[in-house]
Each structure stands twice: as C-alpha cells, then as structure tokens.
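Retro notes - structure team

What went well: the batch runner handled both jobs without manual restarts.
What didn't: labels got mixed up in the shared folder, which is why I'm recording both outputs here explicitly, each with its sequence directly above its tokens.

Job 1
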Amino acid sequence: MDRRSLIKAGVVGAAGAVAAPAVARAQKVFQWKMTNAYNPGSPFYVTGPGSPAEFAERVKAMSGGRLQIQQFGAGELIPALEGFDAVSSGTVEMNVANSYYWAGKTFAAQYFTAVPFGLNFQGMTAWLQHGGGQKLWEEVYAPFNLVPMAIGNTGVQMTGWFRKPVETDADLKGLKMRIPGLAGKVYAALGVDVKLLPGGEIFPALERGVIDAAEFVGPYQDRRLGLHKAAKYYYTTGWHETSNVTELIVNRAAWESLPADLQAIVRAAADACNLVSHTWCEATNAEALDDLVKNQGVIAQPLPAGIVRRLREVNDQVLADAAAKDPLVRKVHESFMAFKSVHDRWAGVSEAVYQSQIRTTQGAG
C-alpha cells in the first residue's frame, strides 16, 4: 500500500471512530415514568383517544422506540395530587394533571388550565401557542424545575351537580361543593364551603352527603362516575371552565437530557393529543347528555342569570385582587385578558353570529 492509500485509510478509520460513538448516542433509549392525577382507566385523562396513553404510544412510534414512557394512574406510584413535587424533585420524569391543582405553589398556575368567564378551546390554544401564554407558563414553572405543555382539553365544562336546586346566590351560602381552581375562590367568596377532591372521591362524597354539590367535567365523564345517581340537578352554564387544559409537566433536567429531535417529538405528540382529546369530548358529550336527561331523570338547565351575574362580579374582584398582590400573577393576568379582549371581538363576529343565526332560523323553510 502506498503512502497516499495509507493516509486515505487512516482518514476513513478516524472518521469511523468518530462516527461510531455519535451513532451510539443517537440510539440511546430513554425510559421514563409518567404519573397521573386521575385513576387508572379513566377515559380522556388516562386512556382512550388523545389520552396520555396515546401520547406515550405516539412518542414511542415517532421516536422509533428511543423514548419509552410508562404511565402510572393515581395511587399506582404516588398519590393523585403529588405529581408536581415528584416531577420537580426528579422522582419521576413526567406528570399529567391540571395546573389549578398547584395554586398553593403559585397562584398564576391556574391561568393555564381554566379562567372563569375566560377563553374557549380555540382561544385558549391560540393564547398558549401564539399569544405568549406558553412562554409565560414556562416562566411561572421555571423556579420549580419544570417544563409545562398542554396535552389535552375538555372544552367547556358543566357547572356541576347539585342535590337541591339553586335559584339565587343566597342558596350558595353554606353549600359544601367540590370545585377546584379559581372558581373555588369565587364560590368561597359567596359563602360556599369549597372542597378539593380527586375525581375518584367525588361520587362517594356526594352520595353520602359529605358534599352538597360537585363539579367534574361534562356529561360523558360525569355519567361514568355515576354522579347522576347522587344528584339530579345538573347546571350546564360552565362559567367556571369555558376551556380546561390538561397539563403535562416534565422535569427540566430530564428534558434537557433529550436530544432536540426527541424534544420536538414530545411537543408534536402533545399538540396532537390536545386536539384529538378535545374532538373526542365534542363527539361523546351530546349522546351522554341526552341519555342523562331522557333515561336517568336528570334535570339539566342553565344557572339562573342573576347567579351568573353575581359570580362574574365576584370573579372580576378575585382576579383583580390576586393580580394586585403578585407581579408575576399580574403579568400573566394582563396577557390573558388582553388576548381575550381581541379574541372576543373575533368570536363575536364569527362563531357567535353563526350560532345565533342557526338558532333563529332552525326549522325555517
């Protein structure tokens, strides 16, 4: 072999030596644990179309098996509402829940799941993705070593189940109600005894009279829990959660250990499940509500307008007070409300007009 061939062979050999570790690094398999605030088998929140189970399947398929995520329902690895701390400390890599459960950690967290009288699914998703909401979410969670993102959305939820009818805001005073998030603070200001219970504890508490009323999600999910067997008055206004984001949080050190392509895959899978889960809710709630009313003896109706007006007055004050106390809350609040103002104008000349015309012309001709 001549000198030129020896040099060429050496270069190829060196390139091979450099390339081999790079290939090995590219093929590293990450095996993560993902806990969940909801019980094993829960549709939407754990299994089914657009669920965290589907999210894990999508990530595995898109990554060619390089990122494998094992999901644990509430109680299987940690208690239902300890996921925030578990991911923050690095005990597990991921958790699925709703950000309003972490109001005790930071009041601002609640804005990223649901704001009473707030944005609908389209508006909430638009704020997160195009209105600065996602960056604010990351800023709020940065001190806790967390990377947050949306992984699901129920759309508008129902006001909830009541053992007795309510006709005025005076009927709310002394009522014991399961209700999380900012809405709980609004109800509390009107004299409601607010309870924070995981989904699996709602039915027995309502059935035994430990609570007088309860909010969960919507017709399909509520029927599955059997809430109609414990209360028959179902208020449908949904003022408290006009949209409800399911949150995925990732431990920051674990996130930063992923190569860029796997990070992109996680975000793409979360975006896909955010849409699929919402459309699944839209496809299942109508039938469930029909069944509850026609076959289960449920009385479904909007809250009286006077109660809604009072709730809105108190809500505005609760939000204003919180924003005045904390600069970060104020920053998130002002961003959310500014975006809502713009989105409301568009919704007012698009979907609102369409829905109004459909109602007034239905059956005509």
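Job 2
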Amino acid sequence: MEIIQVIGIVIAIMLIIYGAMKGFSILIVAPIASIIVIVTNQMELFSSLIGKESSYMTGLTGFIINFFAVFLLGAILAQYIDKSGAAQSIAQKILEKTGTEKPFPVLVALLMITAILTYGGVSLFVVIFVLIPLAKPLFKQLNIAWNLVTIPIQVGLGTFTMTMLPATPSIQNVVPTAYLGTTLTAAPMLGIIGAVVAIAFGLWYMRFTLNKSLANGETFADFNVKDSNEELKKEIPSFIVSIIPIVLLIAVIIVGSALKVPNIIVIGLATAVIVSAILFKKYIPSQKTVINEGASGSIMPVFFTSSAVAFGVVITIAPGFKYISDFILNIPGNPLISLSVASALFGGITGSASGALGIVMEAFGQSYLAMGLSPDVIHRVSAVASSVITLMPHNGAVLTFLALTGLTHQNGFKYQFIAVTGANLLALIAVIIAAIIIY
C-alpha cells in the first residue's frame, strides 16, 4: 500500500509538469493532481480538498491572505514605473553610460537595467516588456545573435535580485518571513556572497557565449525576428525622478527590517506607490487606469502561486509523503544540503520558486528549526535553492520571454537555462559553505 501512495504522489507531480509544459493553467491542473494524490493515498476527498483544517483550499486561501497585499501593491508599482516611462528613462541612461557601439557593454547594460528594476520591485514580466523593444534595434545594429539577449535579462531577474540581495522586495524573499519570523534582510552576508558569485558567473558566461557566437558567424538575421511595433515614449521623467521610488522602497525595507517593523514590505511598496503617483502624474494620462490595470494584473500571479502551494499542502498531508519527507530529511551531510535539495526539487516541479518556498516552509520549516538551524540561514539558503532549477521549459517567465522575443525553445532556451541555473547553483554552493563557516 505504501508504494501505491508514493507512486500516486509521483504521478501527480509528473502531471503538474506535463500540464504546464502543454500550456494548461495550473488553476486546472493543480486540483486534478491533488485528487490523484487523495485517491491513491485513500484520503477523504472533500475534507482534503475543501476542509477547514489542512486542505487544498486552506493552502490556497492561506497563501493569498498572507501575500495578496504584496502582489497587489507590487503590480501597481510596476504599472507606474512602466506607463510613466520611468523604466525607459532608467534604461536609456544606463545605455548612454555604457555605450551602444560594442556588443559586450550592451549585454552588461541590459543586465544592469534588469537588476535595478527588479531590485526596485518591478515585476519581471514588466521588465521583459520594457527591455525587448529597447534591445532589438541595438542587436540589429550590432548584427549579433538575437538569442544572446536571453542571458543578461534572465540573469538580472532570476538570480541575485530575486533571492540573494538583502532587502530585495521579491516574493521569493518575502515568503520565508511568514513562516520563520525573519526579515527581508535575513543573513545579509550570505546573500551578498551568493550575489557576487552569481554576477561573476553571469558576466563570464555572457562573454563566453558572445565570443563563441561571433566565432561561429551568427548574426541577427539568422533568427528571422520581426521588427517590434512598439514605440518608445517621447516624454519621460528624468533618470533622477525615475529612480526615486525604487531607492525609497529599498531604503524603507532596509531601515524597517533593522527596526523589526512588521509587514515592512507592504509599507515600503505602499510608500513607493504613493510617491510614484505624485512624481509621475504628468507622464500618465490616467492614474485610475494604471491602478486598475495593476490591480487586475495582480490576480493571476497570486492565484497561480497559491495553487502550487495548495497542491503542496495536499502532498504534505498525504500518508505517502512521510516516506518522501524521511528521505529528504535523512540525506547525509549538513542539514542545509537536504534543505537545498527539497527547495530545488519543488522549484523544478512547480516551475515557481515562490510556490516551492511555500511548500517547503509548510512541510519542513519547523523540522529544520528543531534541528537548531538559524531561521535567517534557513530563509536565505532555501530562497537561493528554490530558484536553482526553476527555469524549466514550463516556467512562466520562459514562456513569456520566448513569446515576446520571437525565439523558440530550440534556439532560445539553452542559454537562459545554463546562465540562470549555473549562476544559482554556484551561488547556492558558496552560500552553504559560507553558512557552515559563519553560523
């Protein structure tokens, strides 16, 4: 009977991956996969799905209750930064400083722009929408392979600004705080060490692939990319004005975290939104439209992530999960290794680092605390590990990126997977070693 229970969980996980890769919404796939777990583990159907204790619905609603404000305010802030032209202003200033005459400085500039915007709380999807129209004419002018654009942007939004840098307002940095009582600046030295390693690898890999591409004679025309129909805004705020909400957000988070202020991410995002509404008023035709679009845009991301977490809750209450849990917790070596394995595996399974963290914190958080590990270390290590193999073919950021760039999995996935996975894996190794030494 035990083997059937475990097989049921494995089949459900495979269904999640297959369904996502085939384009089915996780809102549909996750409940079906949960039913497979429930049936094969001989659990009571309705109490496991809609019960008031531990169930699919309590996992779904619990995540939304804890993090909806973050998704909502973050989406509204992203709309202000995008619609006002602030993101375009920041991008143009950095490109002005790095120059656009040589390929490598352009790649570095794209990495810097992406990092600044995502560290400032701008949604990764908004960043992609902003940067692709800026990058396309530059790549055409320099006549370099269009698929190289995947490296700087994905490294900038999927590595050090997502899980490593202290005070980053990403949801991946917020989720562990709800379970561990930590702050957004948890284990700052570990985060900085990981960020340095990730940036170093990203820069090396960009240089390596660029040189290889040039040596192979690859050009922009090889990818049959259609010209973008999007026009850049003509009237945009200055660089200084554009950067103020971002700097303010990070400053509020750092100070608030140091003072142990509860819900500082919500306070910081709300402050940044209010300041953006004031500073960007003349550049936005309708504030109501920006707020409404931001609010609407927050709904699907929070439900996608909470659905992954809800599926994880069903797995964790299934009798068969005990065997999986025992296997993970008994992995030889330092407990940080098994914590990393669990976070990375669920990140790959769900295609969502934040969803993986919700599952891992729910299932294993207290176990690792009971082992005597520092909450700050658990926070930082699990966050970094959750993104190691998240950039799978069914990941939402990958699908969006390919759609906007006109690339395919065949010509556009390899570089971004190696870049992000390599950066996150090397950073994780460095963080674990540093954690063992420091803590």
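One thing worth noting from job 2: The first helix runs from residue 2 to 21.
We'll revisit the folder naming next retro.
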